Amino acid sequence: MFTDEIATLRRLGFRHVSLTPRTTSMRWAHIELTPLLARSTDELPLVHHCQVLLQALNFATVLSTALMIWKGLGVICNTESPIVVVLSESMEPAIQRGDLLFLTMPRKAPLKLGDITVYKIPGTPIPIVHRVIEVHDHRRNTTEQWILTKGDNNMADDVDLYNGIKYLQRSHIVGKVQGYVPYVGYVTIMMNDFPKLKYALLAILGGAVLLHREG
C-alpha cells in the first residue's frame, strides 16, 4: 500500500518519505515528507558567498586586463608612460594644464629642435613636459644626444631643474609628445588634489563593473 505514491514523491525530490502505521493492520498510514525547500534554505548562505566571490573575481579580471593593456601600450610606444597628464601652465599656450598627452620614444630617430618632450630627472617625483631648444649630437653615436629644454611659458631654460647636470641625455627622456586630448586629464588632477574623490570614483567604477557583470 502507498508504494506507488512513495516512489512518485521520491522522484519529485522529497528526501525522506516513510510510513507510520496507525493500526496494527496498517489500514491507515501517515506520510512524513521533507521537501526540497528546506535544503534550498540551508544552501542560501553558500550561494550568496559564491556570488560575492564571483563578483570580486570579475573586478580583479577588469583590473588585470587594464594593467595588461597599459603594459602592452608601453611596449608598443617604447616608453614606460605612454599617457601623461599636464599638471602645470609652463607650456601654455601650446599645451594647457589638464591636457592628456600621448607619448612615444623613437628607438633610433634623434630628437630635434622644437620637439615637445617629457623628461624625468632621478630623484624628482614628477616628470616635466617642456620643449627642446638646444641639441648636441654625438659625433659617432647618432642616438646619443645632449638636450636642453624650456617651457614655452617660462622665461629661463631648465638647467636649474636638472639637479646639477648641464644637459639632458636620452636616458632622461620619457617620451616625445605625438598628440593630446584637451582637458581630459583634469579628472586626474582633481583626484590628486582631493584624495577622497579618488577613492569615491574607484568605488563607483567598481560597483558599476560588478552590476554590469551581474546583469
TrEMBL record:
It is found in: Endoplasmic reticulum membrane. GO terms for cellular component: signal peptidase complex. GO terms for molecular function: serine-type endopeptidase activity; signal peptidase activity. It is a single-pass type II membrane protein. Keywords: Endoplasmic reticulum, Hydrolase, Membrane, Protease, Signal-anchor, Transmembrane, Transmembrane helix. Its EC number is 3.4.21.89. GO terms for biological process: signal peptide processing. It catalyses: Cleavage of hydrophobic, N-terminal signal or leader sequences from secreted and periplasmic proteins. Component of the signal peptidase complex (SPC) composed of a catalytic subunit SEC11 and three accessory subunits SPC1, SPC2 and SPC3. The complex induces a local thinning of the ER membrane which is used to measure the length of the signal peptide (SP) h-region of protein substrates. This ensures the selectivity of the complex towards h-regions shorter than 18-20 amino acids. SPC associates with the translocon complex. Catalytic component of the signal peptidase complex (SPC) which catalyzes the cleavage of N-terminal signal sequences from nascent proteins as they are translocated into the lumen of the endoplasmic reticulum. Specifically cleaves N-terminal signal peptides that contain a hydrophobic alpha-helix (h-region) shorter than 18-20 amino acids. NCBIfam families: sigpep_I_arch. Belongs to the peptidase S26B family. This is Signal peptidase complex catalytic subunit SEC11. The gene is BQ5605_C018g08670.
